[in-house]
Amino acid sequence: MHKGLFITFEGPEGGGKSTHSALLGQYLQKMGFRVVRTREPGGTIVAEALRKLLLNPQNNIAPITELMLYEASRAQHVQEVLLPALKKGSVVICDRYTDATVAYQGYGRGLDLDTIKELNAIATGNLVPDMTIVLDIPVEKGLIKARELNKDSFTAGDRLERECISFHKKVRQGYLALARKEPSRIKVISTGKDIEETHKNVVAAVQKVLQRWKKKK
């Protein structure tokens, strides 16, 4: 058991995960909470190195290799960042986590979902988010936004962004399927044109979880 609160942001490419995780972090800090923001793959020296490897479009990585690299990155991230912060009672906000592996490597790549579930459990020590926000956006629109944001690093998007439309549609359907399976944990919020409106919807959803968490403290 940990004393902190663990919130993850998920969703298709271009949904605004980084933007809204930052906005939520700022909002919670103003409320007096100790906040740790991080991301996957990444968050540690080892995991950031694996991130560069995984997202470089010049690398041809087999799906099973990709899965193992994500899990290795996650295992280091959990041990080095997530668990220590949660044990201190921080609110941890993470841009992508285990649901991303289910959506991308499971639904997107077609790898066995039970295997992914088992590997996620091993890598995390069964650490599950208290709340997951899926920022949903139509695939075509999201990819345009994502590629524009990443044009300085990869002219046509990173390795995953370059995947075909059908792959990304499977990923989006994977996220929506996960939300239907776990409605108490996963909240789907449509990303509209107005960042402010989306932020308000995120805050409203998080407030309910915060209230339950504060009662337990």
Q: What would you say this structure looks like, in words?
A:
This protein is an alpha/beta fold and 217 residues long. The chain has one domain: P-loop containing nucleotide triphosphate hydrolases (Rossmann fold, 3-Layer(aba) Sandwich), CATH 3.40.50.300. The protein is built from 8 helices and 5 strands, in the order E-H-E-H-H-E-H-H-E-H-H-E-H. The protein has helices at 17-30, 45-55, 63-87, 98-108, 113-124, 139-149, 165-181, 195-216; strands spanning 5-10, 35-39, 91-95, 131-136, 186-190. The chain has a 5-stranded parallel beta sheet with strand order 2-3-1-4-5, with helices on both faces. Helix 2 (45-55) packs antiparallel against helix 3 and helix 4 (98-108) packs across helix 7 (165-181). The longest helix is centred in the middle third of the chain and has 25 residues, at 63-87. The mean pLDDT is 93.
